[in-house]
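=== RUN LOG ===
request id: a7f3
mode: sequence -> structure
chains: 1
length: 42
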Amino acid sequence: MLWSDPENEPPEDLREAQNMLRRLGLLMALAMVLAMIVIGLR
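=== RESULT ===
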């Protein structure tokens, strides 16, 4: 990082990867909740 680089500005691909990871985490959490409900109903 150069001193002239803007602070807290990750490159575009890194931002996309972070967004994808965030969505993946949300999907995993939803899947876990659904699985718990299904297991609880049986």
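=== NOTES ===
The radius of gyration is 18 Å.
The CA atoms of residues 23 and 29 lie 10 Å apart.
=== END ===
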